[in-house]
Design a protein that fits this description.
14 strands, 19 helices, five-stranded mixed sheet, single chain, elongated
């Protein structure tokens, strides 16, 4: 009965976590950021009336998590521009097919898409620094460069000499009511976008246009009907007061697009889930399989076409995952299908890769990812990256001094990160660290295991002051609570004890049912392997083989035994029934 309850609990855990609106990730309804889904992004981005700043991100990506507050600030800063440009995004974890269409090479990626109905327009990529002011200025610049903008948009270009001459003419068909004289285009463009009025233009103070209009310093100029300008205010106040002055001149004393006693957005804190922190150091098979699933479907699946190097890196990665992981026979066979699919090709497209995964899925390879020990207190923390680290350490220790060896595993990990890890900041940091530590020059298995452990602790140290889960602070591993001999009171590690701990810790792979699979280094890479399970103090050993014959035989014998037991039970029940009906029968 308890075993059945375990099955039900695990089945519940495996259900994909979604909410009523789809999936809530780095942004929610309290933010000014519109998060599109695959079902509605084309309708939103290509309505032909508005431009879009479009963020392609991944909710598991640490750099995306760090950038999300900046993107929210950008959305708040330009919310008064919402009739012209919207701040939007899509989470590639849940809509990887959308991100593939935009040829995303790393997260986060910012694109500008002008007002268009052309769904093949993938926009202009931002490649500057990630500061709020720099991105706001870039958005304003891109808006100014839109060809044939909608008639409702303000003019985002400075007044030319020709236009100034026309404004001075009494026969001008149109002249703005206000001309704002500024020192640079940045201030002028952003003020025009804030005001959103075609009654206002801006001119550069040192331009010939300003000379024609008679302006010699910064300020607000009001054009009369006869073309004369009265210079009524200097720009000495802040932008808000400047804009308020212009609204007053235009006869509109209320601030545009501001919240006056409107809806209280509340705080923007992400809600935290209850999580069992005692599971965080356990090595769960489910966490590793979920990391593999995310890697193959979301990361590798982002590629439209694979270069020769990417295909080679993919082959190496799948090979070591299959051979150096602690997997059940069925899961190993599913990975074998994927390996067979990529090994037989010399070129690969996304369509072909999808077919390979679907073939494995038909054999039972999971499509969804659910984390257990790696589950964070928020949907955007831990999860994939936690599972990936555990997978890497487990593969390195499992193949210690066994084919293909920890050195080959380390090189396969490096190839995967280089070719497929889509958090650009994280990937670049890892590759830089790899170069400094000369990871690819290592030739000894024990050195490979220890170097990767050291690299992981360097990442933990760096992230300890950045974005992290409040329930799971980044610490140096292993903590003394796990290995008292691994470090002293000053935090200095003993390499020999650490190596022994790693070899023991990452070979104890736990199933969600509370079993612990003990895997020796050679066992993972031999065709016949003894997998030991330790359950409630009783030890049992199950022989597994790449041949399906033994598993089929065991299943057949179980079915025969169950059928015989059922027949015996039915015969006994029938005899008791007849005895009760006929007392003359000797029972």
């Amino acid at each position: 009965m308890k075993g059945c309850c375990n099955v039900i609990i695990i089945a519940f855990l495996l259900l994909p976590r979604i909410n009523a609106a789809g999936v809530k990730t780095l942004f929610d309804e309290n933010d000014e950021v519109i998060v599109y889904k695959e079902s509605d992004y084309q309708k939103g981005l290509y309505d032909g009336t508005k431009a879009h700043t479009f963020l392609l991100y991944s909710s598991w990506c640490g750099h995306c998590q760090k950038f999300a507050p900046v993107y929210k600030e950008i959305a708040d800063a330009i919310k008064s521009w919402s009739s012209i440009v919207l701040v939007t995004g899509v989470d590639c974890v849940y809509d990887v097919s959308v991100c593939r269409l935009y040829n995303v090479r790393g997260y986060p990626t910012i694109r500008f898409i002008g007002p268009t109905t052309n769904t093949s327009d993938t926009g202009i990529t931002y490649d500057g620094n990630r500061a709020k002011d720099a991105i706001v200025d870039w958005i304003a610049t891109q808006l100014a460069e839109v060809k044939n903008p909608p008639a409702s948009w303000p003019n985002l270009h400075p007044v030319t000499e020709s236009e100034a001459t026309t404004y001075k003419s009494s026969s001008a068909n149109f002249r703005p009511k206000i001309i704002l004289f500024v020192n640079n285009e940045k201030v002028g463009r952003q003020t025009m976008l804030d005001m959103q009025s075609r009654e206002i233009r801006f001119a550069l103070v040192n331009s010939t246009a300003a000379a024609v209009l008679g302006a010699k310093s910064r300020g607000i100029g009001v054009l009369s009907e006869n073309g004369k300008i009265s210079h009524i205010a200097n720009i000495e106040s802040d932008t808000a007061k400047l804009e308020e002055s212009m609204r007053h001149i235009l006869g509109n004393e209320t601030s545009s697009n501001t919240d006056s006693g409107g809806e209280d957005k509340g705080n923007n804190q992400d809600s935290l889930e209850f999580v069992d922190t005692s599971l965080q150091y356990n090595v769960y098979e489910l966490d590793m399989q979920s990391a593999i699933n995310t890697a193959l479907y979301m990361e590798v699946g982002l590629k439209t076409e694979f270069t020769e190097k990417e295909l080679e890196d993919l082959k190496n990665f799948i090979s070591v995952v299959r051979r150096c992981g602690s997997w059940t026979l069925d899961y190993k066979k599913q990975l074998g299908r994927i390996k067979k699919g990529v090994d037989k090709v010399t070129t690969l497209t996304n369509t072909e890769w999808t077919d390979i995964l679907e073939d494995a899925a038909d054999a039972g390879f999971p499509r969804n990812s659910t984390f257990l020990g790696c589950k964070g207190s928020k949907p955007t923390t831990r999860g994939y990256t936690c599972g990936l680290w555990i997978l890497f350490h487990t593969m390195l220790t499992s193949c210690y001094k066994a084919s293909p060896g920890s050195v080959s595993v380390l090189r396969a990990i490096h190839g995967y990160v280089d070719s497929f890890f889509t958090c650009s900041y994280c990937r670049n940091h890892f590759l830089s660290m790899s170069e400094q530590m000369k990871l690819l020059s290592i030739t000894d298995d024990q050195t490979a295991i220890m170097a990767f452990w050291e690299a992981h602790n360097q990442v933990n140290h760096r992230l300890s002051t950045e974005v992290h889960d409040p329930y799971f602070p980044k610490v140096q591993f292993p903590p003394r609570s796990l290995c008292g001999k691994c470090s002293d009171d000053t935090g200095q590690f003993n390499s020999d004890h650490v190596f022994g701990f790693l070899m023991k810790h990452y070979r104890r792979v736990e199933t969600p049912f509370g079993n612990t699979r003990l895997v020796a280094a050679n066992e993972t890479v031999q065709s016949n392997v003894a997998v030991a399970y330790k359950t409630r103090g009783a030890r049992r050993v199950v022989q597994t083989s790449d041949s399906q014959g033994f598993s089929t035989f065991v299943l057949f014998m179980f079915c025969v035994a169950a059928a015989l037991a059922l027949l015996i039970l039915m015969k006994r029940k029938l005899r008791i029934f007849n005895c009760r009906r006929n007392p003359l029968i000797r029972c």
